[in-house]
Design a protein that fits this description.
six-stranded mixed beta sheet, binds fe (ii) ion, 22 strands, about 500 residues, Immunoglobulin-like, alpha/beta, seven-stranded mixed beta sheet, globular
Amino acid sequence: MTIKMLCSAALAVSACFLLAACSDNDNDDTKCKGDETPTERLFLQQLSDTSVILKWRGEATAACIGTEQDKLKIFGEATETQSGDKEVLFTDLSPETAYWYSIGAAKTAPDDQSFVTSPEVGALPADGNTRVWLIGDSGTGGDDERESHEGEAAEVLAGMQAYIAKDGEPVDVFMMLGDNAYSVGSDFNYQQAVFETYPALLKALSVWPTIGNHEMGLGATIPVAGFSQTADPNSYVAVSGEAPSSMPYLDIFTLPTNGEAGGVPSGTEQYYSFDYGNVHFVSLDSQLTARDPDQLAAMKAWLIDDLSSNDSDWTIVIFHHPPYSKGANHDSDDTEKFGGFDMPQQWMREAFVPVFDNYGVDLVYNGHSHSYERSFYLTDLVGKSDTYSAARNAELVNGDPDRPASGRGEEAYQQLSPTSGGVDDRVVYTVAGNGGKADSSSSITDPAQWLRHVAMIEQPADTAVPKRRALAVIGSVLVDAGENRLVASFIDANGEVLDRFTINR
Ligand SMILES: [Fe+2]
Ligand SMILES: [Fe+2]
């Protein structure tokens, strides 16, 4: 059924209303006769196996797509967002198929405007592997961080590109772990830190973000960037004294609320899930939703629903505040400082670790701490770091208190523990908030603990003496999810792998 038909069907009106971009696309190729029109920003949203949203800022009011670059056939009229950006939803596409597109509804697409739809939900991609790129706290291309961290986000991107040039495997899924656009997450910050930093990727891949503390501008009680402590998305303030408004993030992105790209409808753009072939992805909101007990409970109930109806090979969850971290300014054992602005680290750990353990989550990625920290295979760690016992965890994971599961080298993690009764109850937690800067000094209360959370593995590539359980350099993560094996790698700005682990099913 086309979206046009869906919109005109009386019973489907409410479903149509829920679609952010209920557009008017049809196969009348005589409408694809415009001119390619320049844009200030151009990106894909909500890519699925049968649909995509093209979103842009510029004069054009329509777009065309098609499987042949010079014979675009499917026309779509744009709808306008709150800030005047344009978007078109295209539906009825074929899975794992390359499409070209023009903005302005031209017959021919420029060479750099194409994308590939997702594989069918549950299916392994044709090349046998889903490759995910994750960057955290990458927003240093935005205003006041531009000088202190000049070019660092671009160096991280170049490192990833140097790595994938070696094996020729392209990225399929692009995720951002929050603090995507310093320092206040304004539209202008996003223009610099996101749209001008990753233009080629954004035109080819759908970007899937989460909300960091810097997406909410200044705090009401502490008027400093990143210190907002409310659950209200309409409490956004970029400049001291300004009247509160809705957060730019929610207008910039068009995220699924109704399961548009798979998963159970969340009813909010603040958290959502989607499928890409053999992988199920979840983006939770640790910045706003986590601060209101009722909203937190609703997000948890939704996640349990969502994961209960998911039987993908692999499940990856992202959110901004790490449940376990000894980062420079964000210690998961000391969350009450500065009026409690880091409490979401603890609240997310207490509410969600049991869900991750019991509903088949394999990997959790967070940002916020500007370092790379990767955990042992964990289960049942809801307390602070002093409740972690290496021997107990090793016993739970390997049935042997003397053999911790580091997942390094040949020692792959196994999803099933000896005592799990066939349930996948193991999770690897990774902090990767070093996509645009790396902390070099610490305000952590006990400096001896900096980058040494006991549930994280020691990092051989660390240059400190003695070595830490973290890497304090810039870089990003590539996850390769195959049918029976998942490999996650930390790639530095030179394209070198500094940490890698494997999970076998
Ligand atoms: Fe950050
Ligand atoms: Fe942060």
